[in-house]
Each structure stands twice: as C-alpha cells, then as structure tokens.
C-alpha cells in the first residue's frame, strides 16, 4: 500500500501539477495584493483620512444608502442589514475588523476563495487522477499488477488528500509571503470577534467571543480544507465515472458555479440546502454572515458535505472495482 | 519518465501527511470551538482615542439624499463640490466624512447622532453641513396628495424637536465648528396647489432658521430662492432632487461661508 501511494505521488510530482498550481496562486495573489493596495489608497484619497474608524463608518453609511434603494432583493437587503450591524458592533467596541497586515489579507483571501478558487485548484488535480489513466491507456498496466483494484483507487485517493492539504497550505503561505511585502507581516494577534448568530436580518451578539487572529485563521483553514476535500472527492468520483477528463471537469465546474448562483437566490427554496454547492461557504459561519438559506448551521452544512463525501467514495469504489477496462 | 529521487518523494509524502493531519485538527477545533458555550468574555471597552487636531481641515456632512448627492450624475452633490472648492482655496488636503443616508428623516438622524464614532468625527470637525427635513415634510410626495389630512403641524413639531436634539448633540461634542443648516426648497412649485405647498415650505424654513438662531454659530443657508423661478432647470428627472446645476448653486452658497481659522483651535 505504501509503495502504491509513493508510486502515485511520484506520478503527480512528475507531471508538475503542483508547481503549476503554485504558479497560478502566486500570480493571482500578487494581483489581489496590488488591487487591495490600490483600493486602500484611493479610499484614503477620497476621505482624506487613514483612520479605520472613519473608513468603517463610511462603509456603514454606504451600505445604509444601498438599503434605501428599492431595486435590491430581499436576501441582499437582509445580508446588508446583518453586515451593517456587525460593522457597527466592531465600531462600538473599537475593534478594527481588518487590521492592516498580511494575516488579515490571508484571512480575506481564504474567505473569498473558499467556495470557488481553491476548489478549482483541487479540480486540476482531482479530475484526471483516474480518467487520465484511461486516456493514456496506462490503466491496463496498472490493473494487470497483482494488486486489488480498491487498493489502487485508495492509493490515488490518499494522494488526492495529501495534495489537497499541500495546496491549501501553499495558498495560505503564498498569500502571507506576497501580501506581507506590501502590508507588513504583523497582525497575528489582532483581535477578531466571532460567535455572531444570524436570525433573519437580526444579528445576535449574545454569544460573541474574542480571539486572536491566528486562531481564527487556523480554524478557517480547517474548514476550507474540508470543503476542498469534499469538492476533490466529488471530482474524483466524476473522474472514475466519466472517462473524458474535460467532461468531468465541465460537470464539476457547472456544479460549483451553479452553487454560487443558487446561494444568492435560494432563500425561499428550503430543500436546496441539501445540495453540496450551497454549503461550501463554511467560513461565513465563523465570521457571522447570513447563510444562504435560513436555518443552515455550521453543523448542518458540515453534515451535508460529509454525506456527499461518503456517497462519492462509495460510488467511486464500487464502480471502479466492477468497471470493465478495455 | 523524469527520474525523481525516491527519497524526495518520500519526504514530500510524509510532509503532506503531517499537513493533512494538521488541517484535520484545525477542522475539529473550528467545529468544537463554534459549538462550545460562549464563555461571556467582556470585550474590553477601549476608549476611542481623544480627538486630535491633525492639522487637516475636517468637513462633516450629515443628513439625507441631498447630502448624498442623489440626482447629480457626477455623484458629487453639494458636498463634493464644496470639498473641491475648499481644496482649491486652502491649497491643502481636507478630510471629508459624508454621513448622509438617502431617505433619512429627522428621527433617524437623531438616532445616528447617538453613535460613538459619529460623535468622535463631529468632535474633530471644523465645519459641519446638514440637510434634513425634506423627507419628513414631503414623505415622497404623500404630503401633497392630501394636504389637509397630513397634519403638517404635527410633523413639523416632531421635526423641530428632533432637530433641536441634533443641534444640542453637535454643540455638546463640538462648540467650535460652524454648522451650516441647509434649508428646503419647494420641488413642487410648478404643480397645482403651489401656493399652499410654498407657504408650507416657507413656514418650515422659518421655523428651522428660528431654531438655528437659538444656538451659537449655526448658519441657516436658504435654497428656496434658487429653485423659485426656474425649478425645472435645476431639478433632476425625478422632479425632487437637484441636478448637477442645482447642486452647483447650493455649493456656491455654502462654500464662501466656510473659513479656516486655525487660530480658533
């Protein structure tokens, strides 16, 4: 088994996929860092001040003005109301929600990339783990070895888990190193408020906790990693089911994007919460944003994702052990 | 195939396994912490830093959609125009806090003034501009439909009470800065019943000015006359908010009044 895993790892490293992903992340992080830098500058220019209190106050006012518009949807209105209350809470307690520095940038970056960007990176690896063996024809060589099929598949899956872990780590590390060059490397111990609960447009602050940013960041990373594993497993299943890598990727991509769209408009369709796509934004439970459908909790989302994960594994292993290979 | 050292592959595998376990731990921690009972930690109420004069001129604008600049396609509104003018005249950067919220009525402004941060910004201000009351009076045109039943007097009384509270709050945190209270105009002056609506607006303005005069350094800036003769030239297509030209005229009223007297501080 160990040998098999080593063998799969060797194949992955030889194809330099991880390097390509690292390069993609590095380029994008550099771009975002620059964009963020520019935005802060223009904000300062506009308001003529650098105090975060004034900036946050201005954000609240801007959101309040958006609330006044009659064209916005009810869901959006609720989310705005929640975020206004949250900003106000930060302001009232004199805590800067985005202390300048690399750790804050990493936090923002991870939060925003958790439901699409990181899953996409994982897909680059996951979606052709099995199907590429078909297209290259090497599957026959692999299966003629005196090893049970499930072991072969398991070794591939383990490699997927390992590379997912590496990708999440690399993304965070690159975001830290690159953005730190501009924003500075400090801010690990900045206070972060968590434990908000959202009920409709109300924000319940009775259970709030204060923690250091590094603790908050690690928790978020754990959640992001879990989301990445689930998406990876689903693409892995598709890679077993569909022999064409492109088709598998296309299906997965469609699912992910539909999740983004659905999250913005499903609030009245309660049973949509059983789709894995609308449950991907786990980090918003920690930071206290309104979930896409009322009644969704961290536990329910993790459970839904876990069920999808197990189902995908069962399907993958059953199909792979019975599949005809020609 | 490229030859990779088996040793390197092994190291990477071992490292990745450790990372994998670490993330698993973080996941468990996150879920556990999320559901662990919130031990009510008192958030230390840090007192906001005392208002320091940064040597910059600080302009604060309060109020409703006029302060926001609704109707000006360039998005500046009178606040932006005044800012531009002051920048030119003072030859220095000035800091602007536009706290206007579209649709705000006087009671909402009163509540907004209770916020700590707003008070802090007001405390630092060198000049304060204010538009309020338009939404109280017109209620989106509702008042005009039934002038009789709308109970203008009640509305006006409440408005004046709220405005008094607003002025009091401003003076309690800042007794130096001049406040520019911008008066109402009658956007419906060319519609029927214009005599009634005009007299209501005039009375409204008079009461506002009267109240303003009971505080020190509150300047009432009239705008009624600007829109009196050719209202449609200066109104936006919604026939309620000023357009770019309208805002320019309002800004021209206020801007020359604002002086930077550093020695005052």
What is this entry, summarized?
The complex is a heterodimer of chains A (326) and B (265). Chain A is mostly helical and 326 residues long. Chain A has helices spanning 2-14, 17-47, 52-68, 74-92, 102-113, 117-126, 131-136, 138-143, 149-183, 213-241, 245-265, 283-287, 298-322, and strands at residues 191-194, 197-199, 202-204, 209-212.
Structure report:
The complex is a heterodimer of chains A (326) and B (265). Chain A has one domain. Helices cover 70% and strands 4% of the residues of chain A. Chain A is built from 13 helices and 4 strands. Chain A has a two-stranded antiparallel sheet. Chain A has a two-stranded antiparallel sheet with strand order 2-3. Chain B has 265 residues and is of the alpha/beta class. Chain B has a 5-stranded parallel sheet with strand order 2-1-3-4-5, with helices on both faces. Chain B is elongated. The interface between A and B is large, with 54 and 54 residues.
Topology:
The complex is a heterodimer of chains A (326) and B (265).
Chain A: H1 2-14, H2 17-47, H3 52-68, H4 74-92, H5 102-113, H6 117-126, H7 131-136, H8 138-143, H9 149-183, E1 191-194, E2 197-199, E3 202-204, E4 209-212, H10 213-241, H11 245-265, H12 283-287, H13 298-322
Helix pairs in contact in A: 1-9, 2-9, 3-4, 5-9, 5-10, 6-9, 6-10, 6-11, 9-10, 9-13, 10-11, 10-13
Chain B: H1 6-35, E1 57-63, H2 65-68, H3 77-90, E2 94-98, H4 106-112, H5 116-124, E3 127-131, H6 134-138, H7 142-145, H8 152-173, E4 178-182, H9 194-213, E5 218-221, H10 231-234, H11 244-254
Parallel strand pairs in B: 1-2, 1-3, 3-4, 4-5
Helix pairs in contact in B: 3-11, 4-8, 8-9
């Amino acid at each position: 088994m160990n040998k098999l895993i080593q063998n799969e790892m060797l194949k992955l490293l030889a194809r330099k996929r991880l390097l390509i992903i690292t390069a993609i992340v590095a380029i994008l992080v550099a771009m975002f860092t620059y964009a963020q830098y520019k935005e802060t500058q223009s904000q300062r220019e506009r308001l003529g001040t650098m105090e975060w209190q004034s900036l946050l106050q201005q954000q609240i006012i801007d959101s309040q003005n958006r609330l006044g518009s009659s064209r916005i949807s009810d869901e959006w209105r609720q989310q705005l109301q929640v975020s206004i209350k949250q900003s106000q809470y930060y302001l009232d307690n004199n805590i800067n929600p985005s202390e300048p520095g690399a750790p804050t940038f990493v936090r923002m970056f991870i939060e925003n990339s958790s439901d699409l960007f990181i899953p996409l990176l994982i897909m680059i690896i996951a979606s052709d783990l099995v199907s590429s063996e078909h297209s290259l024809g090497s599957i026959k060589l692999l299966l003629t070895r005196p090893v049970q099929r499930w072991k072969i598949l398991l070794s591939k899956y383990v490699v997927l888990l390992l590379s997912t872990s590496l990708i999440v780590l690399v993304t965070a590390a690159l975001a830290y190193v690159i953005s730190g060059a501009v924003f500075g490397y400090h801010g690990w111990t900045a206070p972060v408020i968590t434990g908000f609960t959202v009920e409709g447009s109300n924000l319940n602050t009775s259970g709030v906790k204060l923690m250091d940013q590094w603790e908050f960041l690690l928790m978020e990373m754990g959640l992001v990693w879990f989301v990445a594993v689930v998406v990876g497993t689903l693409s892995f299943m598709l890679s077993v089911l569909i022999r064409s890598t492109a088709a598998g990727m296309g299906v997965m991509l469609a699912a992910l994007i539909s999740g983004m769209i659905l999250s913005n408009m499903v609030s009245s369709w309660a049973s949509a919460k059983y789709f894995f796509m609308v449950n991907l934004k786990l980090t918003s439970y920690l930071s206290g944003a309104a979930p896409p459908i009322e009644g969704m909790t961290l536990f329910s989302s993790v459970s839904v994702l876990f069920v999808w994960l197990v189902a995908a594994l069962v399907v993958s292993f059953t199909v792979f052990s019975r599949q005809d290979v020609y | 195939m490229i030859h990779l050292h088996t040793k390197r592959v092994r190291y990477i595998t071992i490292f990745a396994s450790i990372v994998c376990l670490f993330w698993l731990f973080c996941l468990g921690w996150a879920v556990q912490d999320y559901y662990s009972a919130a031990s009510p930690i008192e958030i230390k109420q840090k007192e906001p830093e005392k208002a320091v004069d940064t040597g910059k001129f600080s302009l604060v604008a309060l109020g409703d959609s006029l302060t926001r600049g609704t109707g000006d396609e360039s998005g500046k509104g009178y606040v932006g125009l005044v800012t531009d003018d002051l920048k030119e005249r003072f030859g220095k950067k000035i800091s602007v806090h536009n706290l206007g919220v579209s649709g705000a009525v006087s009671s909402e402004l009163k509540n907004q003034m209770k916020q700590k941060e707003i008070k802090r910004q007001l405390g630092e201000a060198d000049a304060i501009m204010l538009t309020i009351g338009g939404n109280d009076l017109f209620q989106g045109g509702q008042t005009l439909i039934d002038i009789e039943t709308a109970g203008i007097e009640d509305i006006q009384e409440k408005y004046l009470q709220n405005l008094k509270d607003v002025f009091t709050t401003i003076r309690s945190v800042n007794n130096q800065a001049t406040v520019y209270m911008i008066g109402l105009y009658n956007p419906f002056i060319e519609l029927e019943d214009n005599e009634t609506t005009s007299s209501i607006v005039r009375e409204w303005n008079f009461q506002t000015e009267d109240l303003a005069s009971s505080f020190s350094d509150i300047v009432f800036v009239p705008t009624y006359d600007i829109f009196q003769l050719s209202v449609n030239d200066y109104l936006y297509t919604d026939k309620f908010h000023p357009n770019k030209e309208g805002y320019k005229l309002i800004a021209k009223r206020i801007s020359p009044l604002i002086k930077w007297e550093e020695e005052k501080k």
